[in-house]
Design goal:
The protein has 162 residues and is an alpha/beta fold. 41% of the residues lie in helices and 19% in strands. The structure holds flavin mononucleotide (FMN).
């Protein structure tokens, strides 16, 4: 996770400090973050499964996104602006929500799938972004089985092409 050790380590490295001269905490944190980034880069298909929390994603998922949105690795800056480097990858986002946001009055509040979609397709260059949204179970508990069955069916269908 990005904290003061990581930020100060990045700054020190940029100014020419050797990795071995960073503090033990800084070295450990950067090494773990690099491991996570390498694991991410080695994969071709990503499935993110998350609940909606306060209209957005849980902080653990945001921390992961911060770990893989790295200049020179997943995007680069050019004279005409940033360009995504994940041009041969696929993303699937599966999200559970208590209420309904795909349509209706709460649509504008939805900032999790929209964020991931925008980040991966427009910023990181991913050409294929699918989603399965399981929503409304909290608001309409009587509909829970129907909502769940629909999502499972959608997952089976998507599995054929993903
Ligand atoms: C901290 C917290 C915040 C939540 N915020 C929202 C929310 O903003 N909108 C919503 O529709 N549901 C919200 N929920 C409900 C969850 O999105 C819902 O229960 C979802 O099914 C969780 O997935 P899970 O059952 O796999 O944990 C929240 C739940 C928690 C625990």
């Amino acid at each position: 996770m990005i904290d003061k050790d990581v930020l100060s380590a990045w700054e020190a490295l940029q100014k020419g400090t050797q990795f071995s001269n960073l503090s033990k905490d800084q070295q450990q944190k950067l090494s773990r973050m690099n491991e996570i980034l390498d694991q991410f880069l080695a994969a071709n298909k990503y499935v993110f499964v998350s609940p909606m929390w306060n209209f957005s994603m849980p902080p653990m998922l945001k921390a992961y996104i911060d770990n893989i949105t790295i200049v020179g690795k997943t995007f680069k800056y050019t004279e005409t602006g940033p360009v995504g480097l994940l041009t041969d990858k696929k993303v699937l986002h599966i999200e559970a929500r208590g209420g309904v946001y795909s349509y209706g009055p709460m649509q504008e509040f939805e900032m999790s799938d929209r964020y991931l979609h925008q980040l991966f397709t427009e910023f990181l260059g991913v050409p294929s972004f699918d989603k399965i949204i399981i929503e409304g179970i909290g608001q309409f508990p009587a509909e829970a089985d129907k909502i769940k069955s629909r999502a499972i069916l959608q997952a089976h269908e998507l599995a054929k092409t993903f």
